[in-house]
Amino acid sequence: MDILFADALKLRRPDAFNIMVKPAGPVCNLNCTYCYYLEKKKLYPGKSDFRLPEDLLEKFIKEYIGAQQVPVVTFTWQGGEPTLNGLDYFKKVIELQKRYSAGKTIENAFQTNGTRLNNDWCKFFKDNNILVGISIDGEEHNHDHYRKTNSGAPTFKMAMKGIELLHKHKVEFNTLSCVNSYNAGYASETYRFLKRIGSGFIQFLPVVERIDCNSEPGKLSILSPLSGGNGSVAEWSVGSKEFGKFLITIFNEWVRSDVARYYVQIFDTTLANYTGEMPGLCVFSETCGDALVMEHNGDLFSCDHYVFPEYFLGNITDTPMIDLVKSQRQFDFGTDKRNKLPRYCLQCDVRYACHGECPKHRFISTPDGQQGLNYLCEGYKMFFHHVEPFMQYMSKELKNKRPPANVMNWIKNRENQAVRPVMPERNDPCICGSGKKFKNCCAGKPLFMP
User: Fold this and answer.
1) Which residue has the higher pLDDT, 337 or 424?
2) CB-side exposure of 200: number of CA atoms within 13 Å?
3) 356: phi > 0 → left, psi -120 to 50 → alpha, else beta; which?
4) Which helix (H) or strand (E) element contains residue 292?
5) Residue 91 Cα to chain centre, angstroms
6) pLDDT band for position 447 (50/70/90)?
7) What b-and-e string marks burial along 202-217, b requiring 16 or more CB atoms within 10 Å of the CB?
8) What interhelical angle do 407-416 and 377-399 show, nearest 10?
9) Residue 308 contacts residue 70 (beta carbons within 8 Å)
10) Residue closest to 126 by CA, chosen among 173, 192, 195
11) Cα gap 448→221, rounded to integer Å
């Protein structure tokens, strides 16, 4: 098959990619109900030590920096829970990065549940300018619903203690909130909570997993994307419409009051796609494949959500890292995101914003029966259609070199010009036409949409 022009450009562009590192493998001090990664221990039966050994750590850092043809190289450390490797381990990381930097600027992003942070950790983050990502799902009842310790104890207060320490040491942090079947109903509360704790950059990750209820002992129970439409959607997964309503509720508040004050990743990404810029988020890009994951032993997989045997690329101890990253198999993985979209998606009026989202979620059928529609399609359509007039305005402002935050005044001016219905008296006929008195019908109900 001929390589498409866009794919040819992808092959010729400078090498710049991201490998998320799992320095503690799938080991964590928590046991979150919806976690898709804890059971990856089953891929390494009989193993108890999941710490990335320091000789392999050095090899990874050296090769990773050397393979990047860009001036800024970003390392992403995630788990499991990476703090389980200890502070001295990451002091070694910084030492090795300095040794092999070769004049490039090195940045680090560190994702943690925050429960093990202390003054020493926070001082280390501050001294080395490390961006910290905190996993937190909202107010205490939202967070503790699924995020528990191995003994089933709540974790909210421990996570909040970690956030307090980050503030104390003036460490830059952002938040990652998993949107699940429980907290999806608390959109405004969650958004206001995240603002209140000082999160200037907010990420929402929809929880969608499928379970093999008949999985054998020792085998993965979370189904691979290759399993098609099989399996049952896990009870903790967010519903499609519920996720759409969650995003719309938060967007309505953000676009009226918080543009340029708080950054919500999906809103920024949607605006980028609307203006024709690179979205900066793989799930809403036309193709993917530049965000891989490395396990504790050097095994490289296509993506963090694709750590299954079918997506194993090789081990960096056996094959040079760049050869695995630039392999035909990984290239096909990335372009399949676009090339395997069903007809229904190809004809969609909001394809520009969605691009089918993550292929991991494409396990339902289209209205005409074609397999491969995204489980979250209905919710995303609701959201993208709702935000379109606001995105149009902000896009126009950007093209005219004006701040998109002008949208807030535009909304206020437009709403102030809206014709407000005259409020009837209590005993007047109700304006809805029911024939009842107003006091016995629509009194107390909103008469117009804000």
Assistant:
1) 337
2) 8
3) left
4) strand 291-294
5) 28
6) very low
7) bbbbbbbbbbbeeeee
8) 100
9) no
10) 173
11) 48
Q: How far apart are the first and last CA of the chain?
A: 53
Structure confidence at residue 434 as a pLDDT band (50, 70, 90)? low
| Side-chain-side CA neighbours of residue 67 (13 Å) | 21
**What whole-number percentage of the chain has pLDDT above 90?**
83
**Alpha helices, DSSP H, located in 225-376:** 240-257, 265-275, 321-325, 328-339, 343-346, 351-354
Q: What is the pLDDT of residues 304-340, one digit of tens each?
A: 999 999 999 999 999 999 999 999 999 999 999 999 9
304 noted as active-site residue: yes
Is residue 124 within 8 A of residue 169, CB to CB? The reply is: no
**Alpha-helix runs per DSSP H in 308-406:** 321-325, 328-339, 343-346, 351-354, 377-399
Higher confidence at residue 224 or residue 448?
Answer: 224
Mean per-residue pLDDT, 83-103: 98
How far are the Cα atoms of 1, 295, 318 from residue 315, in angstroms, in the given order?
29, 9, 6
With cut-offs at 50, 70 and 90, classify the pLDDT of residue 12: very low
Cβ–Cβ < 8 Å for 263, 201: yes
Best CA proximity match to 251, nearest among 130, 385, 98, 136: 385
Crossing angle between the packed helical segments 156-168 and 119-127, to the nearest 10 degrees: 50
Query: What is the DSSP-derived secondary structure letter of residue 316?
Result: T
- Spot the catalytic one: 137, 304, 318, 332: 304
Q: How confident is the model at residue 432 (pLDDT cuts 50, 70, 90)?
A: low
Peptide bond into 80 cis (omega under 30): yes
pLDDT over 70 (residue 155): yes
Phi, psi for residue 176 in degrees, rounded to 5: -120, 120
Instruction: Give the Cβ contact number of residue 261 at 10 Å.
Output: 11
Strand runs (DSSP E) across 105-243, as ranges?
105-112, 131-135, 173-179, 201-206, 210-211, 232-233
Predicted local distance difference test score (pLDDT) of residue 66: 96
Average pLDDT in the chain: 92
**Do the Cβ atoms of 447 and 432 come closer than 8 Å?**
no
